[in-house]
Amino acid sequence: MPVYRRADLSRIIMLVLALFLTAASTSAFAREFRAADTQNESYPTVQALHYMGSLVAERTGGRHEIKVFHSRQLGEEKETLEQTRAGAIDINRTNVALIGSMVPAMNVLAMPFLFRSIEHLQKVLDGPIGNEILDSFEPYGFVGLAFYDSGARSIYNHVRPVTSMADLKGLRIRVQQSEQMVEMIRSLGADPVALPYGQVLTGLSTKLIDGAENNWPSFVTTDHYKFAGFYTLTEHTMSPEVLVMSKKAWSDLSPEDQKAFREAAMRSSRFMREKWRDLEVRSRRQAEDAGVKIVTDFDRKPLEAAMAGIYTKAQQDPAIAQLIERIRKVQ
Ligand code: GTR
Question: Which of 27, 52, 108, 279 has the fewest CB atoms within 10 Å, measured from its CB?
Fold first, then answer.
C-alpha cells in the first residue's frame, strides 16, 4: 500500500475539490433525461421529442441527452405522469386531459367547444395566456415547457353511424382516464368507459367497448379505424398535448441549461406542427380509403347544450372562470 505524505494528501484533496467545484459550477455532469410518450415511434410528438433531444445535445455540447421512450415503454400515461411528478421520469409528453386531475388549468384546455377553431387555439397557446399557463405548473411538481398540436377529437364506434345526439344513447364510449372526460361523455347520454390508451384496440376488437373518441392520427395510427367503421365529426374538444418536465430534473439544470431546454422545447413545438398537419390529412384519407363512414354534417349545438354543466361546475372556481373568459375573448 503506498504511503502518502501529509502534504501530498492535502494536495490531492484540494485537487479533487477543485475539479468537483468546476464541474458543479458549469453543470458539466453529463445527464441522460428520460422522456415518456404514449404514442408510437413515428408519431409527430415522438419525432418532436427526438428533435428536441438533438437541439439540447447540440446546445450543451453533448453534456445532456434526451432518451425517448415511446409506445408506452414506461407505462400508460396516467402512471408515467405520477412518476414524472415524483421525479422518476424526467420529461413527459401528455394530453392535457390526463394531467388535468393534477394541474387544474389543464382541464380548462380540454373543455368542450372552448376553442372556435384550431387558429383560435393556436393563438391562445402561442400568446400570453399560453405562457402564463406553462408558468403555472410548478406548485404541482412539474415545469411546463411547450404545447403540441392535437387537432379536434371526435367520436367513433362500430355499432351505428352517429348522426345526432340521440344515436349516442347507451353506446359504451372509451374515454381517457380523466374525470372531466367521463362527465363530458356521460352528459351526452353515452356510457363512458375510462381506459388507458393501450387497451382501446383490444376493447374495440373484443367489443368490450362500442367506440372511443380521438383525433384522426390517433384513430388511424393505433388501428382503431379497422374495428370502428363510423366516425362522426363531433369535434367536441380540442384538448392539446403538453410537454412537461419533472421539477426535480429541472432543478438539476443550471440556469443556462434550463434556457436551452425551454428553447429546444419551443422549437420542437413548431417542428411538430408541420408534421402534424400532414399526418392529419393523410390519416383521414387512409380511414376513408379503408371504408370508414364519416358523418360530416353533424349538428353540434345539442352536444354543446348537453355539456353546459361542465362549465357551471368549473366556473365555481373564480380563477378558472376568469381563464375561460379570457380564452373566449381572444380573437
Ligand atoms: C391522444 C394523445 C395521447 C392519449 C390518447 C388517448 O390523442 O396524443 O397522449 O391521451 O389520445 O386517448 O389516451
Answer: 27
**Contact 178 CB / ligand 1 (< 6 Å):** no
CA–CA separation, 90 and 101 (whole Å)? 19
Q: Ligand 1 pocket test: which of 37, 38, 276 has the largest number of ligand atoms within 8 Å of its C-beta?
A: 38
Can you list the alpha helix ranges (DSSP code H) found in 235-317? Answer: 247-251, 255-289, 301-306, 308-314
Q: How far is CA 39 from CA 123, 220, 246, in A?
A: 25, 12, 20
Which residues lie below 8 Å from residue 152, measured CB to CB, with a gap of 6+?
118, 215, 235, 236, 237, 238
Separation CA 237–CA 133 (nearest Å): 18
Enumerate the β-bridge partners of residue 255: none
Whole-structure pTM over 0.70, yes or no? yes
Amino acid at position 174, single letter: R
DSSP state of 127: S
pLDDT band at 24 (very low <50, low <70, confident <90, very high): very low
Best mutation site among 214, 237, 275 for ligand 1 pocket (most ligand atoms within 8 Å of CB): 214
pLDDT digits (tens, 9 = 90+) for 138-168: 999 999 999 999 999 999 999 999 999 999 9
98: Cβ–Cβ under 8 A, 6 or more apart, which residues? 77, 78, 81, 176, 177, 178
